[in-house]
Amino acid sequence: MANRLPLISLVTKPGCPRVNRLQRQQKLLQFIVVGLIVAIAVPNLYAQPAAAPAQAVAAAPVALPKPTNEHRTIARLIARLMPQHHISSQGLNDTISERALTLYLKSLDPMKLYFYQSDVDEFQRSSKMIDDMVQQGDLSLAYKIFGRFIQRVDERVGVALNLLGSDFDFSKDEQIVIDPDAATYATTPAEADDRWRRQIKYALLDLKDEGKEGDEALNQLRRRYNRYAKRWRGTDNNDILEMYLTAVTTGYDPHSTYMSPRTLKEFTMSMGLSLDGIGAQLREKDGSTIITRVIPGGAAAKHGKLKTDDVIVSVGQADEGPMTDIVEMPLTKVVDQIRGRAGTTVRLGVKPGGVGDVKIYKIVRARIELSESAARGKVIDHVNPETGAEMKIGYINLPSFYLDMNAAKLGAGNFRSSTRDVRKILMDFQNQGVEGIVLDLSKNGGGSLTEAINLTGLFIDSGPVVQVKNSDGSVQKYDDSEAGTTWNGPLVVMTSKFSASASEIFAGAIQDYGRGIVVGDPATHGKGSVQTLMDLAQQIRLNRANFGALKVTLQQFYLPDGESTQLKGVNADVLLPSVTSKMDISESDLKFALQHDTVPAAGHEQYSMVPRDLLQSIRERSASRVSKDEEFDELRERIDLYVAQKELEKVSVNEEKFMARREELNAQKEEEEKELEQQLGNEVVYRDTFYNTEVLNITQDYVEGLRKQNLAQAR
What we know:
By secondary structure, the protein is an alpha+beta fold. Helices cover 37% and strands 16% of the residues. The strands form four sheets. Strands 1, 2, 4, 14, 15, 18 and 19 form a seven-stranded mixed β-sheet that branches.
């Protein structure tokens, strides 16, 4: 159908700057990342610490690694390649330099628990020098800052270990700051010590909520803090380089990163599915291991209980045995513990949503099979709750825009692709007499851009589907060039904040053509940029060397009418309440994300399948039903509680208040678990929930409304 385009990697959210995001490795392969895959950013050690506040306790000097000549070469390469290839064409200047310092400090100390304000003030004096230093291959500032950080970690861990031997008053009404943006750096050792005393109270209450008290809890915290210090002391010079240069590249945008040789190798293995695991993507944030995506067809998806935003706190091997505490453990080591041979069992200690009781999930490791993450369809005999009228509606669950690239390259006639599978489902639906189609992209994180174009072609005759702007400002459009459609009837596209990249291109094109309506969260994820992976050694013709790789954003996507999907995503025509709409998981939640802009519209056919009066009527009828539905009422209550908890800047470490809050959160989670239990089973194509029922109600209203206006077919 259309020109071959880059693969959109199936990875997801956005993570914190401390975490290096990994993307698909292929030489100069352009691809789109939906979310952020995390590698591990590691700490450093170096030079003489600058003077601390007068009362600061002097720590023993640390033997830091040193940068190599190779590292200096890499820094100069990054300084040259970023302005040349980045979509912004922005030079490595003082603005990027100031951003880099902010990101580097945040990657080390996101909650501002280690550095003093005086440390940061000292570093700020070099805030406009990073660009010049990197261009010269000078990495001394990276090591100076990291060396100071190691000193402060040693000091704070020493204080924490001493405090664990003291008594704590849990009846006192004190708080800790949990919002990184609301946190401030301590100005004196006394202030730092008091903050750590409160942090320890919170950790002890957290363990008590898990049923651990006394020496058991104290010893677990001692091991945790010692492991944290050891972890940072174990940082090597490659890790320091990766963390520092990624701070520079993410000063341009959050998806441009530097991968060290080790990270690149690890990434290549994960993208090649050469290791077995649970089929979930993780990121590290503030010492916690967080689920960012459960991959369709993987072991976790089949298990059914692990969800986005869940926090893993411990890992155990086999059906029985000890559980290892992984709080503050480097993500690479966590991944090593979770991975294993297919068919073996791993136990995960999980806090659903990051709060409340720890639940143990036993998951049997397995490889992801394409057939298990493929499109699946079901015909639903839906009854309108208001009129009693029946209608056959075809529902398609599409978890990704997939393509068996190897089979396609070999010319296999029966290679698997999302377009081929959806076409078969649509033809079967027609044979069964369906009157409307629901295409569910609510959990679709992206995939092959070629497939997004080809699949759009199943619903439009022909024409432009996406436009791509290059770093030189030129714009190229990519068309569905195959005339004809497979389905020309009413189409409803389900989306959410998890719908990203290729999903956004499909949904946006359907919307621009007036071919169907989009239902779900107010907007999709909002990632409209393209990255390429550049082998740095090859840039200077050292083909046998491994300098790692630069992932740089060099293109941006636009819909047929010229709007970018970047930052804003695709707006739904009909909105439904959901918790996901309130989660900080979209492109707009990332630091220094590229801005939204437009290009000239590409001419295309306009269908008449979304009349304004009909769309307004559909919105009003849906809003009326939702307002009277008890389950939607309960959902709104959970949304309000979620938002209230999310917006908290501080939480109490008074035991009574702490436990009362936990009880409230646990009750909320229990309700969500009950709802989830009804939806378990990866074999289920369509889940009969109140939310999905309302989508079917909307679809029926849409089909009937088009029929009344004699518009039930695209023309």
